[in-house]
Amino acid sequence: MAIGGLIAMGLGTALYAYEQGFMSFVTPERAAYFQLLAEIYLLTFGFGFAMLAADFLYIFRRKAAALQSQGFVPLSPSWLLPYILSIRKYRWYFASFALAYGILYSVVTSMVVYQPTIDFAQAYGATFPSAIIAPCCGPPLFTPIVTVYLVNHLGLLLIPLTSLLLVLISILVGLNSTLVIFAFDNRTRGVGRGWLGGLGAAVGLFTGCPTCAGLFFANVVGGSGAVGFAAALAYYQPVFIVLSIPILIATLFLVSKSLSKVFNQGCVILRPLG
Questions:
Q1: Residue 219 and residue 77: Cα distance in Å, rounded?
Q2: What's the domain range around 183?
Q3: Quick one: average pLDDT of 131-136?
């Protein structure tokens, strides 16, 4: 299922990028076709991502069930995270951190647009609620752009790549934060302050990296307004991919490895789920 999702996302993006080459010669008759094409691409991209997410969720649940029979949890993210997320309170931590970071990320990257001085209805002829799809033009994953008018002065500016990063980075931040809380809950007196302090500093750096980058870009182009900032920030998204996601993934392995100082037996002996 995951492979099918990746194929749908990749193939859909490639075909849409190809069709975009003809969008500079739009006639009134072809405008409706390109609008429909943009809608189909967005649905295909979303469906492909949903397939990918469903497959990962299935793997997590299958591994969590397998752990019950083997009676212990190896100290690696691929096994430790399914176990941690099978515990109710840690699922709540994960959801809370991921949601909070997602909201912060949306505001920093101007996916959420709030312009109290501009009347959307008068300036853009908007109705509430409504959505407008701009099918052209830009590099792959930067178009189509969806503008959502929620209420007057408040809307959303959705770019495929920005939306994808919102989900991925929020999930990784939630996983990192939850893993650290699990480590802290299971600390022992034999663990030195240096380990806890170093772990806290590492998590603070890695989980804060995407936000710091967003704030930096906000200062660079802050004078151009919210919508202009979002458009300018879109071209910096590869930086988010290259830096934030690999670092957040690496942090999961670093924290898991550090847990060997807490669980001296080299694994977590299973306890009843909360």
A1: 36
A2: 87-111+160-265
A3: 86
Give the CA distances from residue 262 to residues 89, 200, 209, 212, 265, in Å, rounded to whole numbers and listed in that order: 20, 15, 27, 31, 9
- Of 218, 217, 214, 204, the C-alpha closest to 247 is 204
For residues 5 and 181, what is the distance between their CA atoms, to the nearest angstrom? 32
Omega of the bond leading into 129 within 30 degrees of 0 (cis) = yes
Structure-token pair, residue 255: 């924290």
pLDDT tens-digit profile of 221-265? 444 344 444 455 555 555 655 567 777 788 888 888 877 777 766
Tokens of residue 219, six digits: 């200062």
Nearest Cα to Cα of residue 136 among 265, 259, 31, 255 = 31
Task: Give bridge partners of residue 133 from the DSSP assignment.
Answer: 146
Domain presence at residue 216? yes
Q: How many domains does the chain contain in total?
A: 1
